[in-house]
Amino acid sequence: MERARFKRLLVLDSKHGNKKKWRLSQYKRDIDVIAERMSLTQSDKEQVHYLISRFGLNKLHSRATSEQIIVALSFFVKSKNSHHSIDFGWYRVVKEVGLTKDMYIRILTNLLDCYMKLMPLEGLRIVKSDLPSF
After folding, report:
1. Residues 84-125: pLDDT tens digits?
2. What is the C-alpha separation between 89 and 34, in angstroms, rounded?
3. In this structure, is the dihedral angle defined by the CA atoms of residues 101, 88, 114 and 58, taken in order, positive or negative?
4. Beta strands of the chain (E only): which ranges?
5. Is 19 helix (H, G, I), strand (E, B) or coil?
6. Could you read off the pLDDT of 23-76 as tens digits, one per residue?
7. What CA–CA distance (Å, rounded) separates 69 from 97?
8. pLDDT band at 80 (very low <50, low <70, confident <90, very high)
9. With contact defined as beta carbons under 8 Å apart, do 47 and 31 qualify?
């Protein structure tokens, strides 16, 4: 019974394509639209796409829409790469998607949490010979 169900899923996957690739292509299309409105560079768009493909949208904010998360990541990358401070209210797209500062802070907090899980501190070992002697 389970084997027949698995075969059906394989047939559906080959018939309709990979859903994850399709979603990522939709996110890439949304990034292109938002990048045009926020005047992002090509490297900024690539950084946003990397963050989405690496961590996923659901890990960054479970109840926010994909557009809100993409706008938050785009604003973060743009403010990180610019040489001056950028105000949150300068971009009309931020208001249009309904992104609030609380949501923006939550998305960045979860992004930082994902990065911290990549390099846990428990893996570090302190050897006695590395410690300074007093």
Report:
1. 777 777 888 888 889 988 999 899 999 988 888 877 666 556
2. 15
3. positive
4. none
5. helix
6. 888 888 888 888 888 888 899 899 999 998 888 888 888 888 889 999 999 998
7. 10
8. confident
9. no
Q: Which of 21, 92, 7 is nearest to 53 (CA)?
A: 21
pTM listed for this prediction: 0.74
Asked if 72 contacts 104 with a C-beta cutoff of 8 angstroms, the reply is yes
Angle between helix 66-81 and 101-118 (nearest 10): 80
Q: Which residue in 123, 114, 104, 105 sits closest to 50, CA to CA?
A: 114
In angstroms, rounded to a whole number, what is the distance separating the alpha carbons of residues 112 and 114?
5
**Domains, the chain, ranges and CATH?**
2-118 (1.10.472.10)
Tokens of 113: 């949490």
Q: Do 55 and 117 form a contact (C-beta atoms < 8 A)?
A: no
Q: In the block, which residue shows the tokens 């989405």? A: 52
Altogether, the residues listed in the chain come to a count of 134
